């Protein structure tokens, strides 16, 4: 690997591995428009954390809606504070093992007013007092996210900390109804550093948080049930502490690479960062008559020392003058990635399609795709394959989320997890109902006049032109078998799993509530 800058050797490297091609020559009677390839970007296993100094700023929503009780009887705020304690205890263990580790926490609790809980230096003796102050917080008031951002931005210590050594994590369960409420308005007070936005429950404004993540080059996460909050926080903490490489740009010639963030085929894709042991599978396509050698170039920066690297690998396994290949000759690994690309396409369109007619067309396509995936799993004996199971669950979310009031949260989360190959998967689908403006169960499935959920009686005229019943009922995509839905995805690494376990210890039943003075 060639370094643009020469520095001390570290483990923070990115490799191009596992190139595979669907067919080495033109396919006899091909129904596919292109030949496909896959190649992995792989980070090495870090023996030590890449970050030795980190400032974590948490903006915690404590508005009135955070009093909502989970199934275990504890409120959303109680779960949040308990997760914060788990994080503190985990970081203290790391500090014991790594005395030179310098991590500070800043927690701001917000509703329509701000309560800056101050700093905690991990390893200091005042941890119990700090946690005791956190436990005094209780839900109240309305939601002002923009002022919460401004509190962190105006903090002198946070403001003076290097961008690469700080992260701002927002947790909210609702919609801002005080201060600035647009993504652009809120981000006028972007405090800098890595930006992570977490939506709790199905009532948060997922569209807003996802837009904020897009504009700030940050990350959006969805906590589908408060009991699982620690799993999400654990993955985030792992990504920060064990970040191996950052600012990754991939450039491909001789083929196109799929960009799931734009749902397009292009010649270049970018990623913010990859953690230790991460594998990012790229999906490529080329024309059947291509004579070009496939070239994959990566440019990335090592985390911690900012050394920039550039590396190029070339692949020439395909020859359009070779004898025709048969469909049975297809590489199964590439076939699986082809299905992944189709599922990502379905998730992206389910999330961003607004036109009613296009939504109905997409549903039919998703049903067909589900049948093809199930047939492939059965034929190839992959019914217990975790990767294929995840694709099946993603399709369920895409289909059933199209008309759900909370579809943006579920679909956006599954799209990010599948596209970025994250560890945590939303899996509590109780609220994922297909109810929005229209109950399509009557119109599409061959019943009577659909019900408009926004009023009593018949559907509004703007929808009625599209609702003639088909000659035969349309099948649906049901929830896969219970063993197909997992909290940890097939992409979870051992180190991620360990951090997630530490941060997700459940609340003990003898928890004593402390009222705020």
* Domains (count): 3
Please write the string of helix (H) and strand (E) elements. Answer: EEEEHEEHHHEHEHEHEEEEEEEHHHHHHH
Indicate the mean pLDDT.
Answer: 86
CATH fold label of the largest domain: Rossmann fold
Strand-residue proportion: 15-25%
What gyration radius follows from the Cα positions, in whole Å? 24 Å
Shape: globular
* CATH structural architecture of the largest domain: 3-Layer(aba) Sandwich
Q: Give a quick account of the main beta sheet: strands, pairing sense, barrel closure.
A: 6 strands, mixed
Cα end-to-end separation = 59 Å
- Strands, count: 16
CATH superfamily descriptor of the largest domain: von Willebrand factor, type A domain
| Proportion of residues in helical segments | 25-40%
Based on helices, strands and strand pairing, what is the structural class?
alpha+beta
In order across it, which strands form the biggest sheet?
6-5-4-7-8-9
Mind telling me the CATH class of the largest domain? Alpha Beta
| Count of individual helical segments | 14
Low-confidence stretches: 1-8, 434-472, 510-517
Quaternary organisation: single chain
What does this molecule look like?
Strand 15 (294-302) and strand 16 form a beta hairpin. The protein is globular. The strands form three sheets. It has a six-stranded mixed beta sheet with strand order 6-5-4-7-8-9, sandwiched between helices. A five-stranded antiparallel beta sheet has the order 1-16-15-10-13. A five-stranded antiparallel beta sheet has the order 2-3-14-11-12, covered by helices on one side. With 517 residues, it is α+β, with helices and mostly antiparallel strands. Helices cover 32% and strands 22% of the residues. Helix 1 (76-97) runs parallel beside helix 7, helix 8 (332-352) runs antiparallel to helix 11 and helix 9 (356-379) packs antiparallel against helix 10 (386-401). The chain has helices at residues 76-97, 127-134, 145-154, 156-160, 183-186, 206-216, 229-241, 332-352, 356-379, 386-401, 407-420, 440-443, 461-464, 494-503; strands spanning 2-3, 14-21, 35-43, 53-61, 102-110, 114-121, 166-172, 194-200, 219-223, 243-253, 256-259, 264-266, 268-275, 279-286, 294-302, 308-315. The chain folds into three domains: 2-48 and 245-328, Immunoglobulin-like (Sandwich); 53-241, von Willebrand factor, type A domain (Rossmann fold, 3-Layer(aba) Sandwich); 332-484, no CATH class.
């Amino acid at each position: 690997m060639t370094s643009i800058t020469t520095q001390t050797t570290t483990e923070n490297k990115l490799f191009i591995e596992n190139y595979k091609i669907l067919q080495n020559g033109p396919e006899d009677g091909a129904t596919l428009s292109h030949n496909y390839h896959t190649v992995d970007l792989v980070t090495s296993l870090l023996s030590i954390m890449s970050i030795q100094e980190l400032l974590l700023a948490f903006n915690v929503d404590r508005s009135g809606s955070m009093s909502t009780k989970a199934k275990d009887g504890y409120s959303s705020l109680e779960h949040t504070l308990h997760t914060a304690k788990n994080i503190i205890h985990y970081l203290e263990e790391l500090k014991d093992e790594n005395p030179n580790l310098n991590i500070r926490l800043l927690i701001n609790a917000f509703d329509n007013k701000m309560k800056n809980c101050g700093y905690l230096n991990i390893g200091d003796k005042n941890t119990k007092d700090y946690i005791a102050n956190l436990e005094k917080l209780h839900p109240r008031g309305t939601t002002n996210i923009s002022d919460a951002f401004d509190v962190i931005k105006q903090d002198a210590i946070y403001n003076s900390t290097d961008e690469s050594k700080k992260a701002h994590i927002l947790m909210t369960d609702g919609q801002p109804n005080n201060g600035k409420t647009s993504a652009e308005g809120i981000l006028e007070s972007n405090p800098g550093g890595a930006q992570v936005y977490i939506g709790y429950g199905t009532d948060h404004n997922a569209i807003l948080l996802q837009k904020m993540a897009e504009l700030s080059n940050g990350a959006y996460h969805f906590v589908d049930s408060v009991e699982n909050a620690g799993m999400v926080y654990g993955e985030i903490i792992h990504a920060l502490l064990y970040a191996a490489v950052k600012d990754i740009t991939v450039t491909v010639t001789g083929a196109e690479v799929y960009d799931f963030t734009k749902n397009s085929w292009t010649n270049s894709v970018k990623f913010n960062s990859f953690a230790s042991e991460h594998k990012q599978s790229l999906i490529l396509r080329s024309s059947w008559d291509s004579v070009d050698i496939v070239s994959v170039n990566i440019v990335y920066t090592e985390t911690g020392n900012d050394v920039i690297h550039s590396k190029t690998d070339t692949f020439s396994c395909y020859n359009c003058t070779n004898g025709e290949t048969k469909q049975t000759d297809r590489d199964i690994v590439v076939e699986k990635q082809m299905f992944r690309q189709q599922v990502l396409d379905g998730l992206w369109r389910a999330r961003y399609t607004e036109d009613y007619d296009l939504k109905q067309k997409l549903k039919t396509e998703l049903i067909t795709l589900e049948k093809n995936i199930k047939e492939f799993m059965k034929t190839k004996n992959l019914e217990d394959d975790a990767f294929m199971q995840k694709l099946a669950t993603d399709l369920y979310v895409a289909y059933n989320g199209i008309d759900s009031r909370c579809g943006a949260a579920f679909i956006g989360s599954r799209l990010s997890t599948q596209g970025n190959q994250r560890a945590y998967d939303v899996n509590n689908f109780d609220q994922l109902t297909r109810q929005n403006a229209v109950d399509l169960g009557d119109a599409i499935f061959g019943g009577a006049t659909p019900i408009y959920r926004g009023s009593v009686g018949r559907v509004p005229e703007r929808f009625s032109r599209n609702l003639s019943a088909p000659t035969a009922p349309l099948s649906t995509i049901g929830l896969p078998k219970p063993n197909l839905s997992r909290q940890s995805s097939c992409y979870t690494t051992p180190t991620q799993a360990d951090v997630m376990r530490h941060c997700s210890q459940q609340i003990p039943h003898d928890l004593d509530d402390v009222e705020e003075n």
